[in-house]
């Protein structure tokens, strides 16, 4: 097999680094540096050109005679193998040798095929980790790579901005649904969650809890002490409830507790008793002692044929009122007869 002259190869690799040099039999004797980056099995020296490249248009058999017949025409090619990368090419025969010295260029009777990725350059660059250094300086692919880099940079900047905007939106929404003093959910969040539970027909328990003697703490020890008590109350209630439950501060010293999928009245009574017991433990603040208690009223969604948020909230308030009227520091579950004579009760509507 005759090889190509080093001077010719160096010039060829600089001007068109995606080249293949063929000898007269159609065997590959040289592959340009960019083509070699496609992998050792892509262009193996000594193999036939037609074994490594499928000629899709024009439809020819891939022999050297057929290739020479289409010299100077655009060839539509595809790599054989797993990548199946599309290529464009043009073949030019090397000058016939004259005498023993040859032409001083490629192999006698051989040819050069100049290749490019064409419109598949984006996929090729990604698949084979190519850079602008892998193409001739005058190749339009360089401009495409610059455009790709600019587009990538713009997309990354856009994604970064979108992430910041999403983060700001999430933070704003979180702030809108959070009580800033205690870190609990607020009234807005509680109403939204309750509406979701009612609309989805998911069963739950609702407890309205109000602190007893909290006003006395504020009046005698100041608002700093009152804020401390509220934060401690929030901490205790979160610690005593499940992750799937929701604790919300819906007023100055009023709280809503929403227990997902809880329909056992005894469990609700036990939770309320434990919370009231813990909240009656004196709280220290700046060398002073804060004493409060709590009253609670509760309802179960399963007790209503057609539960509505308005009706359940009203009944939980009525039960809370009854707990306070019966001595405070206690929990009462709603019962229908609590409506009788209660100033908070509106006329009952059919469920």
From TrEMBL:
Database matches in PROSITE patterns: GGDEF
Coiled-coil portions: none
Annotated GGDEF domain residues: 202-336
SUPFAM superfamilies associated with the record: Nucleotide cyclase
Family matches, as InterPro entries: DGC-Regulatory_Protein (IPR052163), GGDEF_dom (IPR000160), HNOB_dom_associated_sf (IPR042463), Nucleotide_cyclase (IPR029787), Rev_trsase/Diguanyl_cyclase (IPR043128)
Name of the protein described by the UniProt record: GGDEF domain-containing protein
Native source organism of the sequence: Roseovarius pelagicus
Top-level taxonomy: Bacteria, Pseudomonadati, Pseudomonadota, Alphaproteobacteria, Rhodobacterales
């Amino acid at each position: 097999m005759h090889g190509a002259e080093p001077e010719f190869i160096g010039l060829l690799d600089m001007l068109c680094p995606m080249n293949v040099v063929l000898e007269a039999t159609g065997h590959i004797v040289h592959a340009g540096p960019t083509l070699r980056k496609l992998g050792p099995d892509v262009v193996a020296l000594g193999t036939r050109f037609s074994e490594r490249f499928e000629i899709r248009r024009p439809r020819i058999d891939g022999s050297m005679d057929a290739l020479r017949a289409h010299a100077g025409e655009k060839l539509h090619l595809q790599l054989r193998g797993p990548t199946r990368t599309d290529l464009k090419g043009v073949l030019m025969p090397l000058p016939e040798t004259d005498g023993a010295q040859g032409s001083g260029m490629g192999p006698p009777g051989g040819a050069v095929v100049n290749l490019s990725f064409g419109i598949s350059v984006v996929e090729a660059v990604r698949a084979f980790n190519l850079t602008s250094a892998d193409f001739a300086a005058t190749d339009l692919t360089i401009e495409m790579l610059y455009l790709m880099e600019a587009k990538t940079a713009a997309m990354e900047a856009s994604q970064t901005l979108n992430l910041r905007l999403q983060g700001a939106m999430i933070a704003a929404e979180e702030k809108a649904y959070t009580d800033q003093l205690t870190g609990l959910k607020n009234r807005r969040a509680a109403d939204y969650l309750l509406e979701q539970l009612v609309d989805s027909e998911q069963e739950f328990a609702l407890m309205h809890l109000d602190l007893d003697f909290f006003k006395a703490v504020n009046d005698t020890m100041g608002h700093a002490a009152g804020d401390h008590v509220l934060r401690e109350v929030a901490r205790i209630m979160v610690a005593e409830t499940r992750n799937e439950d929701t604790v919300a501060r819906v007023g100055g010293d009023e709280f809503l507790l929403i227990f997902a999928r809880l329909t056992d009245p005894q469990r609700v009574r036990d939770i309320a008793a434990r919370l009231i017991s813990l909240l009656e433990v004196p709280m220290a603040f700046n060398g002073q002692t804060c004493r409060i208690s709590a009253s609670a009223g509760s309802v179960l969604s399963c007790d209503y044929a057609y539960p509505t948020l308005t009706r359940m909230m009203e009944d939980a308030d009525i039960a809370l009122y009854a707990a306070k009227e019966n001595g405070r520091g206690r929990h009462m579950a709603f019962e229908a007869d609590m409506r009788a004579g209660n100033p908070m009760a509106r006329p009952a509507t059919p469920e």
